[in-house]
Amino acid sequence: MKKFTVLFLAGFLILAFGTTVYAQAKLEFKASGFIDIQSFLLRNVPQLQAPNQVFYGTAPFGPSTGGFVAFDPVTGRRAGGLNKSDAYWDTRFSLRFDAVMGKELSGTLQFEMDASRWGNAAGAAGSASGAMGRWSADSTAVEIKYAYVDFGMPYFGIPVPITVRAGIQPFAIRPWFLQAADGAGVSGGINIDPVMINPMYFKVAEGVDWVHDDVDAWALQASAKLGTFNVGGYWLFYDMENYPVGGAAAPYVPGANDADFYWLGLFLDGKAGPVNLQFDAGYDWGKVKNPTLSDVKYRGWATRLKVNFPWEKFDAGFVGMYATGADANKSSQAGLPDGTSTKMTGWVVPVGSEQAPACGAIQAESVVFYGQDPGASGGAGWAVRINGSAVGPGSYSGTWFGKLYASYKATPWYKVTLQGLYIGDTVKHANAIGTARKSDGTFRDDKTIGIEFDLINDFQIYKNLSFKLSGGYIFAGKGMDLYTGVPAAGNFEMQNPWAIRTKLFYAF
Which of these, 43, 109, 155, 354, is most buried using a 10 Å CB contact count? Predict the structure, then answer.
């Protein structure tokens, strides 16, 4: 498979460039980017949970966490940050350069600089990712986000426009629902009006060059404009010869797991009369194989529907989402072969997908539970879950919700939004978030995670400068109760989580 992949892509690029040289347009150099400054005031809201290879009982827990949820291992009394307020600032600076040579050719280089905390100690020596906020500044905190070339394929007897993108680039398929990652690959666009076809190949991990131990991702997406609707579907395949992936490389380890994962999905975006619709449905299946332990089979699905009704200065609607959850009687929390785990029924998202926080501005399901407006710290919210080494629950797995919202644009520069969500639990024989246990030591199964209310204020200060002030409060259900770790102390009912957040955003 490795030789076939290399030869196929090399031949594809040779075909693209091995033709008569076209006259080049004059180089046009463009710069763009943004700077954001965010503040967080939270109670019982965890920050980005990554890596989080857990499909139920995902609340951060244990004295070793030294932070959000921790209980004394002897008495079971709360410790760490439970029921205490958190407060911090972060900043992200993104700078993009585009070298454009007409409609047929361009190159893009994008940098990213983060202060994961104002005043953070990370990178005190002057060299660390996310360390731009340290005192005295002068940190080596510049990261390469993207580096790719876009070009139009010359005519080879195929009478349709074809575009190619090669390099370090976004790998996105319905990013608020399934796949939102960045990496090295080749993607394309084939425009057969009214159908657009997007083939994609990405190298997730390269192991030993002469051993078949890589992780490759293949995808095909197609969509068509039908009246007022854009209708489409996708197929996504991850061939993982070493699983979990591990670090930056995945060298072959004899006896390690390998896995194959697949996703199929359908989507619809468009307008039915005065109503805007957005619909997604996806199904995943796969298998994690081990040479000595029993295999773990994966089967899960999720769906989401948004109905929006705009009217003059008002905007109102409904969002519903359901994602299957794991069965604790059939799967380990990690979903890996362990001698007893055989089946994972929870919806999963691909390795490293930032569907949870990275698309918060698109998704924006809630302020507290599902997280909102990610930044340098990755985001805050109970469902902000990313796994960089294995498939993970994303922000949806094991939960469902129904949301009502309404917005009013009171002035050209001010909009206010009110929304309420009921959040339920779809995990079986355990809880998606909470870790509460029965008297016999097994996980408790509750159906209500909580009810959340949010108030969001958007201010447009200048054309390119905006400010957001948002607040949210969850009336926690039994599905958020925590186990103290000490049978005599039992379970613990946390105080209701809440969050107050601000974001100053300058785009240029």
Answer: 354
Q: Give the span between the Cα atoms of 168 and 185, in whole angstroms.
A: 6
Do 436 and 443 meet the contact criterion of CB atoms below 8 Å apart?
Answer: yes
**What does the DSSP assignment read for 17-42?**
HSSPPPPPPPPEEEEEEEEEEEEEEE
Cα separations in angstroms, 9 against 12, 198, 258:
5, 15, 24
Q: What's the mean pLDDT in 159-181?
A: 93
**Residue carrying structure tokens 């139009």:** 152
CA dist 101 → 106, 148, 149, 185, 251 (Å): 6, 14, 11, 22, 40
3-state secondary structure of 151: strand
Cβ neighbours for 414, distance < 8 A, ≥ 6 positions apart: 457, 458, 459, 460
Cα distance between residue 309 and residue 289, in whole Å: 47
Residues 6+ apart with CB under 8 A from 11: none
What the block records as the tokens of 364 is: 């924006």
pLDDT tens column, 112-140: 999 988 987 654 444 567 788 888 887 77
Q: Which tokens go with 445?
A: 């199964």
Pairing of strands 28-43, 498-507: antiparallel
Report whether 205 contacts 214 (CB < 8 A).
yes
DSSP single-letter state for residue 64: G
**Tokens 């029993």 sit at which residue?**
294
Residue 95's Cβ-side half-sphere holds a number of Cα atoms within 13 Å equal to 7
How far is 140 from 132, CA to CA, in rounded Å? 7
Is the pLDDT higher at 72 or at 411? 411
The sign of the CA dihedral 334, 339, 341, 342 is: positive
Segment among 51-55, 322-326, 366-370 with least mean pLDDT:
51-55
Q: Regarding beta strands 482-483 and 491-492, do their DSSP bridges make them parallel or antiparallel, or are they unpaired? A: antiparallel
- Return the percent helix, strand and coil in the chain, to nearest 5: 5, 50, 45
Per-residue pLDDT for 363 more than 80? no
Report CA-CA distances (Å) from 229 to 9, 269, 286.
Answer: 34, 6, 31
389 or 190, higher pLDDT: 190
pLDDT at 162 over 70: yes
d(CA 220, CA 467): 38
Top CATH class of 33-507 equals: mainly beta
Give the separation between CA 119 and CA 133, rounded to whole angstroms: 5
Do the beta carbons of residue 342 and residue 297 sit within 8 Å? yes
The CA dihedral of 471, 347, 428, 497, to the nearest 10 degrees, is -10
- What residues contact residue 426 under an 8 Å CB cut-off, 6+ apart? 322, 323, 324, 325, 398, 399, 400, 432
Return the pLDDT at 140: 78
As a whole number of angstroms, the distance between CA 300 and CA 4 comes to: 31
**Cβ–Cβ < 8 Å for 345, 300:** yes
Place of tokens 């008495």: 75
* C-beta separation of 396 from 347 below 8 A: yes
